[in-house]
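name: query_chain
kind: protein
chains: 1
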Amino acid sequence: MVSTRIGRVMITLSALSLMLSASNGFASGSEKPKVLKPCMQCHAENDDNDIRGKLGSVSMKAETIKIDTGKASWLVSFDDDTSLDGAEAFNKIGKGKEILVTYREEDGMLFADSVAVKPPAKLDPSMLIKVEELAPLIEKGPKEGKFTIVDARPGKLFIGGHIPGAISIYDAQFEKNLDKLPTNKEDLLVFYCGGPT
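structure:
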């Protein structure tokens, strides 16, 4: 009974994958997933059978996850043998969470061997600045307060609104923008992003 169910799911998913790739830009299993280059501060290069992206959705009934990589969305099947790290269940991961899927291809379909959820960044509490401490500095301004605030979010979010006086250096492009950082190493350097850090 299990093999029949899996067989039907594979046929259904194969047909769905073909329809979606033709109509909505979903990628099929017949080509290598194209993923954005990861931030090299935290991640190594992807292996050939890795997809790194954000969780789009999970279907527990069809046992599939959708991974959004920025250039494409990928449907990958999972089962009881798929290892999951960083969440208690696939439907508990949370939409938009960064995940790494190691997969194998069988009959033109992608099957997840493992799914790892990126853990939240951990910072030394002594390296954090509180809003109450930053507000008086912002009132003084960067020169008098001797600080630089860096908005590490993508540029479109910076344009949409940012802390007064902040400069924009998107985290994934940090190495290319070192010249924007202050030359005086004695000044306070404050980074912020859209996440919990």
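note: The mean pLDDT is 77.
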